[in-house]
Specification:
143 residues, alpha/beta, four-stranded parallel beta sheet, 6 helices
Length: 143
């Protein structure tokens, strides 16, 4: 089985997990863990170990973190490494909803490389500044 593991600072990962539950349905192959405000690394790692307990040596992991180099992602990589899962893990930083949703919908796809490329592509494509139509000065004169 392939798992999607979301990790973050604050409540971002559990919040994103909640949105995935709404849009893709509640699933056993999507897990999340976050480093809460005031929580130490040891407590976070302990919670993370409990979160990833269902993952076996035969499973694969797609790990999405909020910030590359941040404590949640770094500790998740270390924890997966300690369990011998790092060779079967693909890790990404800068997670967003389109990226996670793409992963959720195609998580068990045969071609993991194509899945990962699609995740990054969708995540990038969703980043854009919106053009806001604020009207023109002519409209203000009609008031």
């Amino acid at each position: 089985m392939r798992y999607l593991l979301l990790v973050s600072h604050g409540t971002f990962a559990p919040g994103l997990h909640s949105v995935l539950d709404m849009l893709a349905g509640k699933r056993d192959d999507i897990l999340s863990c976050s480093l809460r405000d005031g929580e130490g690394a040891d407590e976070y790692v302990s919670e993370l170990e409990a979160t990833i307990a269902p993952i076996t040596a035969e499973d694969e992991v797609i790990l999405l973190g909020d910030i590359i180099g941040g404590s949640p992602l770094t500790n998740a990589l270390n924890t997966l490494s300690a369990r011998g899962l790092l060779p079967r893990t693909r890790a990404f930083g800068g997670m967003n909803l389109p990226m996670a949703l793409t992963a959720a919908f195609d998580l068990q796809a045969e071609d993991e490389n194509a899945l990962c490329e699609a995740m990054v592509s969708e995540g990038r494509a969703a980043l854009a500044q919106m053009e806001l139509d604020l009207g023109t000065d002519d409209e203000d004169e009609d008031l």
